[in-house]
Amino acid sequence: MTTVDTVQAPARRLRVLRRPRATTGFWSWFTTIDHKKIGIMYGTTALAFFVVGGVEALLLRLQLAGPNGTLLTAAQYNELFTMHGTTMIFLMGMPLAVAFGNYLIPLQIGARDVAFPRLNAFGYWGFLMGGLFIYSSFFIGGSAPNGGWFGYTPLTSTPLGRGFLPGHGADFWAVGIIMLGIASTTTAINFIVTVLNMRAPGMTFMRMPVFTWMMTVTAFLTLFAMPIITAALIMVYFDRNFGTNFFQPANGGDPLLYQHLFWLFGHPEVYILILPGMGIVSEVLPVFSRKPLFGYPVVVFSGIAIGFIGWGVWVHHMFATGLGPVAVSAFALSTMIIAVPTGVKIFNWLATVWRGAVKLTTAMLFALGFIAEFTIGGLSGVLHSVVPADTQQTDTYFVVAHFHYVLFGGLVFGIFGGFYYWFPKLYGRSLDERLGKAHFWLTVIGFNLTFFPMHFLGLLGMPRRTYRYDTGLGWDFLNQLETIGAFIIALAVLIFVVNIFVSRRHGKPAGNDPWDARTLEWSTPSPPPMYNFAEIPQVEARDDLWHRKYTEDETGHAVRIPSGAAVAVEERPAGGGGEDEHGGEGHGEGHGVHMPSPSYFPLVLALGLPILGYAAVFQALWLVPIGALFVAFGLYAWAIEPPTEP
Amino acid sequence: MDQVAVPPGHDVVEAGREPPATGTGVSNTKLAMWLFLSSDCLFFGAFISAYLFYRGRPQPGPHPADVYNIPFTSVTSFILLMSSLTMVLALAAIIRGDYRRLRIWLLATALFGATFIGGQVFEFTEFYRQGLSLDKNLFGSSFFVLTGLHGAHVTAGIIWLLSLWGLATQGRLTSRDSERVEIAGLYWHFVDVVWIVIFTVVYLIPK
Amino acid sequence: MADEPTSAGTTTEAEPRETEGEAPAEDQPGTALERAEAAPPVPAREQLPMLPGEVRPHPTPQRYVMIAAILVVVTSAEIGLYYLQGDVPDGLIIVFLLISMAIKFSLVASWYMHLRTDKPIFRRFFVLGIFAAVTLYLIVLTTLHVFSR
Q: Shortest CB distance from A198 goes to which of B22, B43, B144?
């Protein structure tokens, strides 16, 4: 008679849609609010976009394989390099980090889910809708985005027909990224509140795993950076569609304003991209060195320092715009300074591995590869901070080399490592190590073959974003090498994808803790049950799981606590009352754990976004009420339905 | 048919309810709203900066001095400012279990907000009549987009408040739900505070 | 839009009402609204106990009205100053207007948004956002030579 929602139950429920109940089965994926399933969706979708972005890169490389390439027209080339960059940054890099964050943050902090499960689902659906929306421009509107992933004005902001960019690509780009930004911002808020509010008892900030720490800093960067680019893109959209003059030089507008706003977002964005990768490396290295992370507090504070200082360097993307020596010197200094906390992290990682009992699993190989490749990228970055040097390097392939070393050699290597490390937790089976090693070595060879020569090409003056080059400039051979390298990368990625498919079915079965790891997620079954932990753990130390498994003898060596004496997670008395927001009673004691219920409305709300997006791009007013209906219905129904329904 | 049970005298006791079992001791939703508002500062800051950047630059008219009607805008600004008072009185009412005043103050806030929007619409049409449009010059672009986006925020707030008022009318908003009013209030006050900045920086500060 | 799943506590809260001997909610006379209105509200002057998440008791309605009065006075002064533009140097006007803007901003944020009475975490985040916005955009405008024209 009295139910959970007696007090808050609305008098009349709109019985159009019954609350979905299924948590298994194909259709349950559309209504799930479980952070683990959402993480898997993010990861799968982002990997698909990775492949698409990779195909775009292969087409670019085929066009540039030899001088005066004829595979692509200039217009096609512009679309492809724009979409390659946009895809890799917004549809691969950020979502893959969020995929890992989504799956792991609650498990690492001892929570049952994130703070706002439905909002979490909305973040995913918004991402998917945004990505599909942008890609639909290949089929409608005349052109995919073609003004570069950074969309400099006035090229992108000049109204259609009056400028040099054909088609609606720039509109799809501006509106699409606004859409993605909304989704990212909601996820950032979700992660921050989760980490601040839902840590298990005893999990102080300085006991949190470094991956969770880095995701938190990333979330703050996202929270403050996305509104800036949203504003800039609204200005671009208005310039294009309503004739405003924000960036129209003929009417007094200044394109430099756009560059400032874009890079105010753009620079923190690259830290949004790399910090999760650094977090993954900080998890993998200790486990496969069987040593704690060297200098944990310093690594954490360096991550925070990077987060702060990263706001103070954006003008280094504008060194060649004639801002004058004062501005340029100030930002040259700040750019040099940011190398310091980054370097500190690298030394701490090296010290972690030093004298450790190193096990070169594929995950470890990628983590070590990250250190090597990212350092190279960092060095070319510091070279950029020297303004006279940058004035030559800017807009050449030297810059392309730099950011691929830090983003591919950094973030993507880290992500690959993360996949090998955490795959057994997700699926109860490990990825095949032999295929993994083939993946790793082919990637190292292919990646360096593709991108290292770009340093030379840049110094030899080869410009970026140019669809063909003439022969006789000394560029031909290196370009050929790079194209070969790109196809080696493609082969490596193919092996990786095959590994995933094969290992899901036939991989070596993995228990809770196949790597003998250190953090709480490894204390759950593989895969974890929907409620994550039967009992919310009482945390007593950093690397809590390790301390429950091992103690130290007189010589300081780790000694395994015999399993009879080990206090497993499930048996530790739940501290702090064990009452968490999700109900708290252990499943094993026969009490139900109150988990939040699935919901349609995050998807419904997300569906409204592309409808409004098409209305904006094509100025199709009739679409506005339809999109608004989805948004209003989704929002209102979401607000009315209780989080949990029995 | 009504399932809401609000026994007499219990509401005030419920107001002293348990602190949320969260790491920081504050509720998730309130923390989320504050994070969103911090983020929104950067959003409005970009448009205010664009306005400041383009102000006074050589451009064809109309110029601010030609179109601004400070007495009129002062009145609408007063109204928005007073809507913050009514909003916080609504919150005070629901905490105390005074549902009649809750409905009155919620409606008043929404009406004041709507009046402000009405004033904006009138002002914009006046400016347009005097030749200032989105695309006319730098002033038109930066002014209309900034104040238009602010107006959109206010409008969203009005819809939110009217929804709350609707719930209150049906008895579905009790003192246990005071946080829902508080969250809406935080958003509303923020929108008011942004207008305080815009009114000073855009309308009042001399060129 | 409270999204946290209602804890088991909600179930138990419903029970004491029944054990008090009252009829279940559906059987009581009148609508929920009528019953709620029958309950005497706490008089405005009475100080309420502190809510969870507060470090000081929240302000009374009188206090809110007083703050509103101050806001009206400050705004009137600003508008008055606007009309003195020819007679008072521009620099002074700008300084005064910026100070009054800051005063009004703080009053609304501290009192109406309860930053004064809530736990400091909200204030810290909000100040962070404001500080970031002001600093970053001031740098942008300075680099674009807005203040040296």
A: B22
